[in-house]
Amino acid sequence: MIAKFWGVRGSIPSPPTSREIKYKLLKLLELAAEKDISTPSKREEFIKNADEKLLGVLGGNTPCVELRVEDKIFIFDMGSGLREFGQYLISKVGNSENLELHIFIGHTHWDHIHGFPFFLPAFHSKTTIHFYHLHPQLKERLEVQQDFRFFPVSLDFMASKRTYTQLELDSEIMIGKVKIRNIELNHPGRAFGYRVEYCGKSFVYASDSEYSNLPPERIQKYIDFYSEADLLIFDAPYSFNEELEKINWGHSSALVGIDISVKAKVKNLALFHHAPENGDHEVFKLLDTAMHYKERNYPHSDLKVFLAREGMEYDI
Ligand SMILES: [Zn+2]
Ligand SMILES: [Zn+2]
Questions:
Q1: In whole angstroms, what separates CA 4 from the centre of its chain?
Q2: Ligand 1 midpoint to CA 191 (Å)
Q3: Of 50, 224, 235, 277, which is the most buried if we count CB atoms within 10 A?
Q4: What does pLDDT average to in each consecutive run of 10 residues of the chain (316 residues)?
Q5: What is the H or E stretch that residue 163 is in?
Q6: Which among 289, 286, 232 has a CA at the least distance from the CA of 260?
Q7: What is the CATH architecture of 2-15+57-315?
Q8: Residues lining ligand 1 (ion), CB within 5 A?
Q9: Predicted TM-score of the model (pTM)
Q10: Where are the domains of the chain?
Q11: Which secondary-structure segment (H or E) carries 25?
């Protein structure tokens, strides 16, 4: 299985700001001042070896994760990252090829569905989209999003074929040889996570959930669901203090992600749904704090923790 992050921010798309670019430039210039960059080739060498977090961006698109399992394409949520994924798909297969997509909806807050009206493959008659969801009336929710008052093109105008499968809570389905289970997360308006298993490997998508206000038996249910996941995508926009302040907002922190992942023996933890108000360097600071927390509290744990970044591919 290969997972690819197309959108990693939460709540609202948030492109990098001038402030963020100035911060990165200043850091790069500070590093360059210590080096000899007097020739074009030396400058090229300097850039080649520079820290990835100063050269690139975490990305400003809202949640969308692709999971490829052999020739099948699964998509988790339809945030603004879905737009670029659609362009990529069209560039690969063109308009005349059949395309079959399996889209799992965690929940229908704007940041998890607002990429769909801009999803080019949905406009093509050769595309079949299978939606899987737990909220009732997903079709109606998508129609409302594309009501003429809010968007110029209605859902009916999109030429793709679409099927809607409302899943039973805590149920398991098979798509070919791929097994998918679901769980209810803890989020206003209800949200759901998915666990995908294939050939002994497992992937969990669990965006938008709060844990600090839950009783131990409910936490245990998540530990069981995330158990030994090869990759867990975890909602972690908050710092420790924010987590204490924003009770019942439905989000979590990297520290809680680490506690739960260590207990669940998760192998790789991707911190996801970065807060739109945080510049990249602030998100990296949250990661530093999380790594110290892990070293101090779980020095013998093999858990790998990283920030989900737009464009990042992860081989599971
Ligand atoms: Zn969200
Ligand atoms: Zn939400």
A1: 9
A2: 9
A3: 235
A4: 98 94 94 94 93 91 97 98 97 87 98 98 97 98 98 97 98 98 98 98 98 95 98 96 91 97 98 96 96 98 98 97
A5: strand 161-166
A6: 232
A7: 4-Layer Sandwich (3.60)
A8: 10, 111, 208
A9: 0.96
A10: 2-15+57-315, 18-55
A11: helix 18-33
